[in-house]
Specification:
CATH class of the largest domain in chain A: Alpha Beta
Distance between the termini of chain A: 34 Å
Oligomer: homodimer
Number of strands of chain A: 10
Radius of gyration of chain A: 19 Å
CATH architecture of the largest domain in chain A: 3-Layer(aba) Sandwich
Strand order of the largest sheet of chain A: 1-4-3-2-6-7
CATH superfamily of the largest domain in chain A: HUPs
Number of domains of chain A: 2
Structural class of chain A: alpha/beta
Strand content of chain A: 15-25%
Order of helices and strands of chain A: EHEHEHEHEHHEHEHHHEEEH
Largest sheet of chain A: 6 strands, parallel
Helix content of chain A: 25-40%
Number of helices of chain A: 11
C-alpha cells in the first residue's frame, strides 16, 4: 500500500494505474474508519483493479458550532485497516494541500442542499460537493463508493456528477449496522453508554416503519409519525420525514415510487442520522444504486 | 471533421483519441467565429494531436436584459472555418443537452466573479465557470485555449481549474485585432458604421496608456485616467481600471508586477470590452500564459 500526502505524489502514484488501463475505485472518507467504510472498500476491491482511499477531515463541511476540532481521528488504525483490506493507495492530505492560500471556488447543488441536513447545517453540502469534486478530479476514479447512511450526501453527489458531467459513477452501499441495529458512524464514539442505549430508538423506529410499509401502509405522514414516536427520548428531533431519495423532496401523496424515511436527531450533544429505503416493488436494499438523478442525459 | 451534437456521440468520438494516447486541445466558443477564434484553434492545432471546438451560446451566462436572443449565429460559416483549419471534432450541443431537466448545480469562483464585468453582469461568471467546467469534463482536454480579450474570464477559469484540481492547462492567446486596432468580437457585428468608428477610442486609449507605461509611467490611476479620456464618445463607461490580471483586484500603489488595463463600455446598446497587459519586465504579450493563480499547489 502506498501512502501519499501531496497532490503531486498522488498524481504520480495513479498515473501508473491509468496508463496501464486499470480501473480505479475510490472511497473518500473522513477517517476513524469502521465496518461501514470497510464495506465500501470491499465493494471497490471487488469491482475495480485498484482502490484509493482518502482520509481527510474536511473543514469546509463543518459549521461554526460543530465538531471539527474534536472529530475522532486514529490514523494508525485507519492505515492498518486499509492495509489489511488490500487498499492500493491511501491519500492523507493536510488541509493546506486541499485548500491552499487563494482558494475561493465552491460548488452549490442548488435547492437540495438546503433541505433536511442542509437546514440544520448551512453550507455543509456546499463543502461536501466542493471537496468531493476536487477529490474526484485528483483521483479520476471510474467508480466511487458512498454509504447509504449519508443518503442526502449521495443524492447531492449524484446530482453534481450528472450536472457537471464528471466522468465517474457513484455506487451507494447499504448501511452497515451494529448487531442491535444502530447505524455505524464515527460519531457513535461520542455517545455515553446511556445515550448509546437511547440511540437504538432511531433504527427501531425506522425498522418498524419499514415493516408497516411492507405490510401495506403507503401514507408518508403515517410512516414518518410512526418513526417519530420511537424518538421520544432524544434531546432534539431535527427532522423525521418521508422523502424522494433522489431529490430529498417531501412526499405529498401515497408512496408509489421508491422513497426514503430519513431521521436526524441530537442526543447528548451528538448528531446522529439514519434512514431506510422503501420500495413498492420490494427490492429496497438494492434499488438505490440503479437510480439516476431526475432528468436528461448522462 | 466529425460533427457531434450529443454527449454520448462526443464521448465515443473522443475515446478513440484518448485510448490512443493522443493529446486533446479544446477551444470552447459561442460560435460566429472570427480570426480571434481562428488564432485559438491554430494554437491548439500546433500543440495538440487533435482539436475539439465547441459552439454553444450558453444561456446561463446572459442576464435578463442581455443579448441572448439576438446573439449572432452562423453555424454553416463556423463549420467551414473549422473544417478549413483542420479541427478534428466540432461539438454543437442544444441547450437541453447541456442543461437537461433537473439541472441545479453551479460553480462560484468567489469574490473575483463580482468584480469588473461581474458588477455589471451579475451571475455571468457563475454561468461561465459552470458551463466551462462541464465542457472540460466532457472533452477532458489536455490544453484549453482562451482569448486575452476576455481577461477576467481567463483568470476566473484559471482559478476554478486550480481550485477544483481540474486536470487541464489553460492557455491564453493574445487578442486579435482589426487593422485599425479594434479587438475582434462577435458583438462587433452589432455596431453601426458610426459606432464602429467611435469604438476605436477603446484600443487607441489602451495603446496610448501602454506607450506611457513603456516610457516609465507607473501610477495605475494616471494610466487609467489616460484611457478614460480617450473614451469620451461612449454612451457608458462601465469600468476603466488598472488591475492585477490574475485576481482583478484594483492596483493601489505603483505598478511593479504584471498589471492589466481593462475597459468595458457601451456604445449604441453594444457592450464592448478590451484590455492591455503591462509588464514591468517588458514581455507583456507573452507573460500571461506563464502565470499561475496565487497560492499553493497545482
Amino acid at each position: 500500500m502506498r501512502i501519499v500526502r501531496s497532490i503531486p505524489e498522488l498524481r504520480v502514484a495513479l498515473k501508473t494505474f491509468r496508463d496501464g488501463g486499470q480501473s480505479i475505485g475510490f472511497v473518500p472518507t473522513m477517517g476513524f474508519l469502521h465496518e461501514g467504510h470497510a464495506a465500501l472498500i470491499r465493494q471497490s476491491m471487488a469491482r475495480c483493479d485498484t482502490t484509493v482511499v482518502s482520509v481527510f477531515v474536511n473543514p469546509t463541511q463543518f459549521g461554526p458550532g460543530e465538531d471539527l476540532a474534536k472529530y475522532p481521528r486514529d490514523l494508525e488504525r485507519d492505515q492498518n485497516l486499509c492495509l489489511k483490506l488490500g487498499v492500493g493507495t491511501l491519500f492523507i492530505p493536510e488541509p493546506a494541500e486541499i485548500y491552499p492560500t487563494g482558494f475561493t471556488t465552491s460548488i452549490s447543488v442548488g435547492p437540495m442542499g438546503d433541505l433536511l441536513c442542509g437546514m440544520f447545517r448551512p453550507g455543509h453540502f456546499r463543502g461536501v460537493a466542493t471537496v468531493v469534486t476536487k477529490l474526484f478530479n485528483l483521483v479520476q476514479p471510474d467508480l466511487a463508493f458512498f454509504g447509504q447512511k449519508d443518503l442526502q450526501q449521495t443524492s447531492i453527489l449524484r446530482r453534481v456528477v450528472k450536472d457537471l458531467n464528471l466522468p465517474v459513477d457513484i455506487l451507494v452501499v447499504p448501511t452497515v449496522r451494529e448487531a442491535d441495529g444502530l447505524a455505524l458512524s464515527s460519531r457513535n464514539a461520542y455517545l455515553s453508554p446511556e445515550h448509546r442505549k437511547l440511540a437504538l430508538g432511531i433504527s427501531r423506529g425506522l425498522f418498524a416503519a419499514e415493516r408497516r410499509f411492507q405490510e401495506g401502509e403507503r401514507d408518508p405522514g403515517t410512516l414518518a409519525e410512526g418513526v417519530r414516536s420511537a424518538l421520544a427520548g432524544m434531546d432534539e428531533i431535527q427532522y423525521c420525514e418521508a422523502v424522494d431519495p433522489l431529490t430529498m423532496d417531501l412526499l405529498a401523496g401515497p408512496i408509489t415510487r421508491p422513497a426514503a424515511l430519513c431521521v436526524a436527531v441530537v442526543l447528548g450533544g451528538t448528531r446522529l442520522i439514519d434512514n431506510v429505503l422503501l420500495s413498492p416493488t420490494g427490492e429496497a436494499a438494492q434499488f438505490i444504486s440503479h437510480l439516476d438523478p431526475p432528468g436528461g442525459n448522462a
